[in-house]
């Protein structure tokens, strides 16, 4: 799968077309054949009238009637093939866009979530991809309709130049009447799409944090915001519905008026004797047939209008570039290397477990991001500037796991083993280290039990332990954990701390948090004050020597002693 061409809507559509050239060409072929099969019946009927009925020739009548019946069969077959092929074209294009968005999200990572909302990305995957695929309808029915609009005037010219001129003038006039309504509908769609994405984001946030909202009493406030947002969305929906209804009514009436004018002109010519009865019937037939391609072009224009809005959104997402801090040319250390953050003074020796403790969790999290290579910094890895190492290598060897890490929907096994290449014997120890075995035992089908996106059907502590199990199973060279046990009880926390120390013994591990149970297991504890290293040593040493450290990590114990 090649990278999408994001230089413009036309180039992106051409990229989608080049991904399935044979199928698109086949769709155009069936569209053209289907069009010609629609244009044949009026001519055959006119021959049957003039050469059969008026001439009293029974054989000619049977011949032209049989030909008419055969064309109907061909029309039915080509219609099925056209519809089948174009359904495959649209589906393939939608899937191609969905895959492009997914690959781009993985490649860009954190910058994408900072520059767009989760709702916008969700709507792009679920709605916009389908609308973009719908634009490719122009290669099937669209091509056939254009052919019909060119061929019909040529055929009618043979009957009457006047009728042909009416058609030639009427087609662009009909398009001119529809254009303002189409533009208005396009503007309303854009407005509605913006609010739809924002409301989807808010709904996802509410669902994801419902337990927390119920606990802290913020449920009603967020519900009010959602109601207000829903009301605004309803308003834009009404405006979009009004614009759409006007467009659909005008687009429905304009072709009928156009056909009526053609029919009136043909009738006048027939009365004047300038065309035969059979030719009059043919003109009526072509006028009626012309409604089909005109309607098809209107539908194609509607699809293109809706797709244009979606295409703009998708291109905006695909144009988000990953943050590039260096040129990626520096060689990564051949083996494990020490991580050093000059900005904070934090040093992470090879094979050690280091606990970062700070009164401000955001400050410690920033250090974790710098050590993980997620932001531009002067961090070095075995003396090599981390910013200059290839991002793919950094992501493969250094893993940062926090409480916002996404949990994908699927079975628990798939949630923990995201690559699907680990054996049961490897998954088991990771689950035990993170104390997830009780969760597995409580689920009806164990590891094969389904888990909703973001683990919405799990408790906060269960989600946290599942995230930890996934990180442990990945077994990176450097594992950086941000508050890995903040949502579990003290007994479970002590169990996890001991097992994590044993599991990661000899591997480089950084744990951000203020838990004394975790800090007690660390080889070194680093106390950060205002973003800089204020003290370091063992947990016991810092408890004895630093009152600020003691107040920070033992405040819960102090409160227990006072009761």
Task: Briefly summarize what is shown.
The chain has helices at 9-18, 21-53, 58-108, 110-115, 118-135, 141-159, 161-208, 210-216, 219-271, 277-318, 361-371, 391-397, 412-416, 424-433, 437-442, 460-474, 490-503, 516-521, 539-545, 547-553, 555-562, and strands at 339-341, 346-348, 353-358, 380-381, 384-385, 398-401, 410-411, 450-451, 478-482, 508-512, 524-529, 532-537.
What structural category do the secondary elements indicate? Answer: alpha/beta
Question: Strand tally, please?
Answer: 12
How much of the sequence is in beta strands?
5-15%
How large, in whole angstroms, is the Cα Rg? 34 Å
What is the overall silhouette? Answer: elongated
Care to describe what's here?
By secondary structure, the chain is of the alpha/beta class. It has 21 helices and twelve strands. A six-stranded mixed β-sheet has the order 6-9-10-3-11-12, sandwiched between helices. The protein has a four-stranded antiparallel β-sheet with strand order 2-1-4-5, with helices on one face. It starts with 8 loop residues before the first helix and ends with a helix.
